[in-house]
TrEMBL record:
GO cellular component: GINS complex
Full protein name: GINS subunit domain-containing protein
Gene3D superfamilies from the UniProt entry: 1.20.58.1030
InterPro entries in the cross-refs: GINS_A (IPR021151), GINS_bundle-like_dom_sf (IPR036224), GINS_Sld5 (IPR008591), Sld5_GINS_A (IPR038749)
One matching Pfam family: Sld5
Compartments, as annotated in UniProt: Nucleus
Amino acid sequence: MMSSWDEDETAASAAEAATTDIELLKRAWRNEEAAPEILRFDSPLVSRVHEQIQLLEETLDDFADSGVNDLVVSLYQMDLDRTLFLLRSYLRLRLQKIEKYMMHISRFDDLLSRLSPQECQFAKSCAEIMEKHLEQSVLSKLPYGYDSVTRQS
C-alpha cells in the first residue's frame, strides 16, 4: 500500500522528468535554430514529449469530468499548449531546414542519417519534385552540359 508521501514523491518525480524533457526539447530547439546544418533527430526525446502531451490531455479530460477548479484546469491547459507549441516549432524548424537544403541533404548519407525516417522520406520527395520541376521548366531548354541539376560543365 502506497502512502500519501510515496504518491507525492512519485508525482514530483514525474513532474521533474516532464520538466527535464521540456528543457531538453528547448535546448534541442535552440541548437537546431542556431546550427547552420540540420542536427541529429532526437527520436527518444520527441517520443517522450509526445507521451507527456498525451498524458496531459488525459489529465485535462479527467479534470473536466471530475469538476476540478477551473484555475487548475487552465494552468494545465496552458502547460499543454506551451509544450505543444514547443514541439511543433521544433519539428517545423527541422522541416524548413530540410526544404531549404533538400538538394544538399539528399546528396550526403551523413546528413540523411541525421533525419527521422519521416523526414528522410520528406527530403527525398521534395528533392524529386524540385528536380522534376526544374527539368520541365528550365533544364530541358538548356544546351547539353547544362541540363542537369547536379552536374554542371
